[in-house]
Design brief:
alpha+beta, glutathione-dependent formaldehyde- activating enzyme (gfa), three-stranded antiparallel β-sheet, 3 helices, globular, binds zinc ion
Amino acid sequence: MSGQATIRQGGCGCGKVRYRVEREPIFVNNCYCALCQLQTGSTSSAYAFFEVEAVEILSGELVRFAQQTGTDRKQQIMQCAECGISLFFQPWPTGRHGISVRLGTFDDPSDIVPDAAVYVSQRMNWVTLPEGIPAFDGYYKPDDLLPPDRLARLRHLVEKHQADQHLSEDI
Ligand SMILES: [Zn+2]
Ligand SMILES: [Zn+2]
């Protein structure tokens, strides 16, 4: 991907939490896994993944909840302390270095198109998949899907997280 990044803003339902992102996402997923269904109460979740420093919290207070992921790891769900809207989560395998932003919390998510539909094998029976977006029964290999610049950004975060593991086993 090239060219100028769009500056995007978003926030929670009550307006207390506001954030701003100046980079393009490393990747965008539309996930149909059972855990995303549980955590959103819906058919799937859609999120954009960034370096953690790319997401600037402008206002408001976030509360964090640790939840299991499908791979037996923990992830941190971040919600507005006032209204409880879930805005962000920090998944394995990049630990604290990466952050996923739920697409629906952007003021205008209309130009952000997922790179992939993932874990579609777990979707509810009646759910049809989006047209023109590669769909995977499980997860995809980033090397197969992401352009080199975004792959390099992802690899950099994975390396930073791996370096952390030498300091602590539980991040
Ligand atoms: Zn709120
Ligand atoms: Zn999922």
